[in-house]
Write a structure and sequence with these properties.
This protein is of the alpha+beta class. Helix content is 36%, strand content 35%. It is globular, with a radius of gyration of 18 Å.
């Protein structure tokens, strides 16, 4: 009994860690597409590219940060239209640094949903993406501003 229970409990985990040989290219293609959307999103922010930002986001994006309005503790909500407007107003362009690194790590994906982490000089973000009508878009984001003293990736 214990052995079969353990197999049932571990079986979904093992499936998520292994790509079947015939599907390996598909898995790599999906991971590359997820990564490309997350990177395009951040590059659009730093370059003021409104069209690229629009293409990265689902219209019902729910983006939140741990800093509330006017610096008070709490969650601050930002919508897709807010992000597009902020990109158009070049908020991110003013933060851009020569040679800055943007790291994207696809944490997990399953069929049409995915989770990724994006680390830039200014932000540490966790993204949820969905594949809708054949293309990946960001539907949720949670971020925290990085401190100037932060080094490297995860902190």
């Amino acid at each position: 009994m214990k052995r079969s229970t353990m197999f049932v409990a571990l079986h979904p985990i093992c499936q998520s860690l292994i790509c079947i040989p015939t599907a390996r290219a598909d898995c790599a293609d999906e991971v590359a597409a997820i990564r490309a959307v997350a990177l395009a999103y951040m590059q659009a922010w730093y370059s003021g590219d409104v069209e690229r930002m629009k293409a990265s986001l689902h219209p019902k994006l729910a983006k939140r940060s741990l800093m509330g309005v006017f610096g008070k503790p709490g969650l601050r909500y930002t919508s897709a239209s807010d992000m597009i407007r902020y990109t158009q107003d070049v908020y991110g362009v003013s933060l851009r640094q020569q040679g800055q690194a943007i790291d994207v790590i696809v944490l997990d994906h399953y069929r049409s949903v995915a989770s990724a982490k994006v680390i830039s000089p200014h932000y540490h973000e966790y993204l949820h993406l969905a594949k809708i009508d054949g293309r990946w878009v960001i539907v949720n984001a949670l971020y925290e501003k990085r401190l100037p003293t932060d080094k490297g990736g995860s902190r």
